[in-house]
Design a protein that fits this description.
- With about 260 residues, the chain is an alpha/beta fold.
- The protein folds into 2 domains: about 140 residues, Rossmann fold; about 120 residues, N-(1-d-carboxylethyl)-l-norvaline Dehydrogenase, domain 2 (Orthogonal Bundle).
- Helix content is about 50%, strand content about 15%.
- It contains 12 helices and 9 strands.
- Strands 2-1-3-4-5-8-9 form a 7-stranded mixed beta sheet, sandwiched between helices. Strands 6-7 form a two-stranded antiparallel ribbon.
- Strand 3, helix 3 and strand 4 form a beta-alpha-beta unit.
- The protein is globular.
Length: about 260
């Protein structure tokens, strides 16, 4: 197996180190470098896209049509509509549950990272070889539920962490009622948007369990259009009320941006 990694940030560098430790050949596509591996690489070689969600349009456009089925997307947030619009609804996706604090520092695993799609087994094996827990899911609805769980975590802890300037562990200890209320609001939106079932109490339990493993992490609002912004817009399109989520967006100054105004 060889590997192409797009993006040389913290996450991309973690995958490069994992591949190199396994003796795999790695091509790294940097922002300022040539994009030849996306145009002429061997079909069947996974292309790990480790960029921000805002860069995905450009990465897809730069990839030869014959290689696009090899793209592996590991972005947080609701990227499925974008993938579907490019004929990539069945492309490999991953949900990463490890922290990479720098390009060269150690990777700190949390829960097992999850992968679904044609290259899921190969990427999970790569992480296993670097002692980073990973698992493969084969059921699309189950993976959709996991996307919803990760998206809810990012939105809830990002907003609360930003509003109250606190760590994940502090939010966990201080705001159990807000966590439960936000989980109930978001679960209904995510169920509609992902065509799956996300019971609110099960969502709360997952949020608490993962957060307890990374208590010092500083969650903040990031990649708004793909996270809380998508939730805000989707709730309105489905005529669903999310009053606490909306209130926190207003208090943190993101309401207008979330609405796209």
């Amino acid at each position: 197996m060889s590997l192409v990694v797009v993006g040389a940030g913290r996450v991309g560098s973690a995958f490069v180190r994992a591949a190199e430790s396994a003796g795999l050949a790695v091509d790294v596509v940097r922002r300022e470098g040539p994009d030849d591996p996306l145009r002429s690489g061997a079909i069947g070689t996974p292309i790990l896209v480790c960029t921000r969600a805002d860069a995905l349009e450009g990465v897809i456009a730069a990839t030869a049509p014959a290689r696009r089925a090899d793209l592996v997307f590991v972005q947080n947030g609701m990227i499925r509509p974008l993938l579907a619009a490019h004929g990539l609804a069945d492309a490999t996706q991953g949900l990463l549950y490890f922290a990479a604090t720098s390009r060269t520092g150690p990777v700190e695993p949390g829960a097992p990272s999850l992968f679904w799609g044609p290259h899921a087994a190969a990427v999970a094996a790569l992480l296993h070889g670097a002692h980073i827990p990973a698992a493969v899911l084969t059921d699309r609805r189950e993976f959709s539920r996991e996307i919803g769980t990760k998206l809810a975590w990012n939105a809830i802890f990002g907003l609360l962490g930003e509003r109250f300037d606190e760590s994940v562990g502090e939010t966990l200890a201080r705001r159990p009622d807000a966590l439960a209320a936000l989980a109930a609001e978001l679960a209904q939106v995510l169920e509609r948007g992902l065509d799956t079932t996300i019971p609110a109490q099960a969502l709360v339990d997952r949020l608490l369990a993962y957060s307890a493993s990374i208590p010092t992490f500083q969650a903040r609002v990031r990649e708004l259009p793909w996270r809380s912004g998508w939730i805000f817009r989707a709730a309105r399109s489905y005529a669903l009320a999310t009053p606490l989520h909306d209130h926190l967006l207003a208090e943190t100054g993101y309401a207008a941006a979330a609405a796209g105004t």
